[in-house]
């Protein structure tokens, strides 16, 4: 049969700021001027000339001539430069070293830089000297760089065009990859079929504007051209949308991973999120944004949701699960912050600080002990003895409180805390009741008029858990009636979407009531910890399939993936799917190196590590396995 495959293109790659992250002449100046007082000034002048030459605002030959005049470099500096440049090879180029080794015959480095430093750097990628087209330095007898060979076409304006003409690459299309205007000019002159603006290191607007394609990484170039690549998928295609003022650490970590990141300061309501969710792979939220079934319906590329908080009641967890979307939260990162806030609130209410402070602001000096008490020896009733409740138990005992707790699950009793068998038992005894239950729907109005009536006269109530847990009107009535001595509330049934929206509540203006805008976890420490914890989980899941600590997918902790391709399959949990997967693998003689399966009542999660060599048809067949929700290949 005739070979109908299109010929592999010639790939013409620029060196400075494309093959390497840096401009070599700038770096050479920096090396040559080490220890000299004029270093900073001269390097800045050279950099400005480099930029001018790259974006076209200074003619190239002029830029080169003036840079070399400024450069006090010698032959020995070139060795140092080469060592330095080897550490500065662009990440995605380095990652795809195997591609270069395999296809070196199709790759040309065409650069207005200098052969003396380019050749040794690209040699490690299998690119031979004859495929490096670049300038050459001239030296004096003492080894000082004095200039460059003026007859080399690459030292002249339009040099890359002339060089390409001389090369005569006309038996296959030429694709040019570079960051500068001179790279685009090859395409403009009709000597290349496509110009790819390479933006991993620098994005020059004038160059990007001319590009046939803008590629933020070499992975993207290979992916678009269906050429073999080291990664299974270019990371720059992963879009993260981060809402609700998530700490910037998260944005940084996702960007470092190579993802595109969009940051929105406030929350988004359902309609707003619907308008933005298409194409998003990773959604980062805090407690406000509702991830509803409608949002999931529209979320055509969603792989993971990060709850940058503890609570996940704002997310349709089941819906995510049934679509194979992993949800991760930060179960412990802000625990301590809530505990400290609760302790502060207990003391503040016991000393009636909201009343005292408000009077003082009005100019009223009311020095009296009326209604104020020490917390030492008082009974603290903790409802929900999970991570926060149990930690508060330890801290409250340390300041002399007697702790009672009630939890629907059997919990380890810490210190001298006393377990209550019913909520009623706790409410009847406690001087201070603090709520730390999770936000499951069944906890709606866990504390209503009847429960408030059970509380001791003058007792205090804290809600730092979720707004719907307390019937807020009933609480306002109990406070107005003077039955409770005070309350502290951080969470509300409805919370303003942004800082610009006013806050409305029946609790406003009531005496000895502390109101805070859902800031239990809002400390620098907690936010930073969360912004590290959640991205690490999500990136781990994307890269390896590890679901350990996912709140909705079956948790599998995977061994490191070695010399294998990993097939990740999420399916509806009905009998026979695993057998079907394995039949497909057997039918294509795929060698299985390891297989891991976990199911829950809704879905099954199977990871199969296989030998790297297999027929691509197997991938198509696995996608077609009945009951498949999501399938991806990782390597
Ligand atoms: N105000 C804020 O900024 C913050 C609020 N939170 C909220 O604090 C709450 C607790 O967080 P964690 O301790 O980390 O959760 P957790 O899941 O470790 O503990 C919750 C405990 O409540 C228990 N529970 C659930 N329903 C109950 C009920 N009806 N009666 C008695 N016990 C019940 C559970 O068995 C569990 O032990 C969550 O609602 C979370 O969303 C968490 C962090 C910050
Ligand atoms: O800080 C936030 O946005 C939410 C804190 C919270 O309620 C949680 O972690 O569950």
From TrEMBL:
Entry's Gene Ontology molecular function annotations: (S)-2-hydroxyglutarate dehydrogenase activity; NAD binding; phosphoglycerate dehydrogenase activity
GO process terms (BP): L-serine biosynthetic process
SUPFAM superfamilies listed in its UniProt record: ACT-like (SSF55021), Formate/glycerate dehydrogenase catalytic domain-like (SSF52283), HAD-like (SSF56784), NAD(P)-binding Rossmann-fold domains (SSF51735)
Enzyme class: oxidoreductase
Key word Cytoplasm present: no
Substrates-to-products reaction catalysed: (R)-2-hydroxyglutarate + NAD(+) = 2-oxoglutarate + NADH + H(+); (2R)-3-phosphoglycerate + NAD(+) = 3-phosphooxypyruvate + NADH + H(+)
Pathway listed: Amino-acid biosynthesis; L-serine biosynthesis; L-serine from 3-phospho-D-glycerate: step 1/3
The keyword Amino-acid biosynthesis is assigned to this record: yes
Keyword terms, alphabetized: Amino-acid biosynthesis, NAD, Oxidoreductase, Serine biosynthesis
EC number(s) on file: 1.1.1.399, 1.1.1.95
Organism domain of life: Bacteria
Record-annotated ACT domain positions: 566-635
Entry similarity comment: Belongs to the D-isomer specific 2-hydroxyacid dehydrogenase family.
Biological role: Catalyzes the reversible oxidation of 3-phospho-D-glycerate to 3-phosphonooxypyruvate, the first step of the phosphorylated L-serine biosynthesis pathway. Also catalyzes the reversible oxidation of 2-hydroxyglutarate to 2-oxoglutarate.
NCBIfam families: HAD-SF-IB, PRK11790.1
Protein name: D-3-phosphoglycerate dehydrogenase
Protein's organism: Hymenobacter oligotrophus
């Amino acid at each position: 049969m005739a070979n109908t495959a299109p010929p592999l293109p010639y790939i013409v790659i620029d060196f400075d700021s494309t093959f390497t992250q840096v401009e070599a002449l700038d770096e050479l100046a920096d090396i040559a001027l080490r220890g000299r007082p004029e270093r900073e000034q001269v390097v800045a002048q050279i950099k400005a000339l480099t930029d001018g030459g790259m974006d076209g605002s200074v003619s190239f030959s002029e830029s080169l001539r003036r840079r070399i005049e400024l450069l006090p470099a010698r032959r020995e500096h070139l060795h140092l430069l080469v060592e330095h440049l080897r550490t500065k090879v662009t990440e995605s180029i380095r990652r795809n070293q195997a591609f270069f080794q395999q296809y070196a015959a199709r790759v040309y480095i065409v650069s207005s830089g200098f052969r003396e430093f380019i050749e040794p750097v690209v040699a490690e990628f299998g690119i031979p000297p004859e495929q490096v087209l670049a300038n050459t330095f001239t030296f004096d007898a003492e080894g000082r760089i004095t200039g460059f060979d003026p007859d080399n076409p690459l030292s002249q304006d339009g040099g890359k065009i002339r060089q390409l003409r001389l090369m005569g690459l006309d038996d296959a299309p030429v694709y040019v990859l570079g960051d500068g205007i001179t790279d685009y000019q090859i395409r403009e002159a009709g000597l290349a079929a496509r110009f790819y603006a390479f933006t991993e290191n620098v994005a020059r607007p004038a160059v990007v504007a001319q590009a046939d394609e803008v590629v933020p990484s070499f992975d993207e170039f290979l992916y678009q051209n269906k050429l073999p690549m080291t990664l299974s998928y270019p990371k720059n295609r992963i879009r993260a949308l981060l809402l609700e003022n998530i700490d910037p650490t998260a944005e940084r970590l996702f960007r470092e991973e190579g993802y595109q990141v969009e940051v929105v300061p406030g929350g988004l309501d359902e309609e707003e999120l619907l308008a933005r969710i298409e194409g998003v792979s990773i959604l980062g939220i805090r407690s406000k944004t509702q991830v509803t079934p409608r949002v999931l319906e529209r979320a055509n590329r969603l792989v993971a949701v990060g709850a940058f908080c503890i609570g996940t009641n704002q997310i349709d967890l089941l819906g995510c699960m049934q679509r194979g979307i992993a949800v991760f939260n930060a179960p412990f990162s802000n625990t301590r912050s809530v505990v400290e806030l609760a302790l502060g609130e207990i003391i503040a209410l016991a000393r009636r600080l909201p009343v005292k402070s408000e009077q003082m602001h009005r100019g009223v000096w009311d020095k009296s002990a009326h209604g104020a008490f020490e917390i030492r020896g008082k009974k603290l009733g903790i409802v929900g003895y999970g991570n926060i409740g149990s930690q508060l138990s330890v801290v409250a005992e340390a300041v002399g409180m007697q702790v009672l707790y009630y939890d629907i699950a059997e919990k380890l009793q810490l210190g001298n805390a006393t377990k209550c068998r019913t909520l009623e038992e706790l409410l009847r005894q406690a001087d201070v009741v603090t709520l730390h239950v999770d936000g499951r729907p069944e906890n709606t109005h866990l504390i209503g008029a009847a429960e408030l009536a059970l509380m001791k006269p003058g007792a205090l109530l804290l809600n730092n858990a979720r707004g719907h847990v307390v019937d807020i009107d009933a609480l306002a009535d109990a406070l107005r009636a003077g039955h409770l001595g005070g309350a502290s509330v951080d969470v509300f049934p409805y919370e303003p979407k942004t800082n610009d929206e006013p806050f409305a509540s029946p609790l406003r203006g009531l005496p000895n009531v502390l109101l805070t805008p859902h800031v239990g976890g809002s400390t620098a420490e907690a936010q930073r910890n969360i912004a590290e914890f959640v991205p690490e989980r999500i990136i781990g899941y994307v890269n390896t399939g590890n679901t350990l600590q996912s709140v909705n997918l079956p948790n599998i902790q995977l061994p490191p993936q070695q010399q294998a391709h990993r097939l990740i399959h999420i399916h509806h949990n009905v009998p026979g799917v695993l057998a079907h997967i394995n039949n497909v693998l057997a039918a294509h003689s795929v060698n299985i190196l390891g297989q891991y399966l976990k199911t829950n009542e809704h879905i099954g999660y199977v990871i199969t590590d296989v030998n790297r060599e297999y027929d691509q048809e197997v991938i198509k067949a696995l996608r077609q396995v009945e009951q498949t929700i999501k399938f991806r290949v990782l390597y």
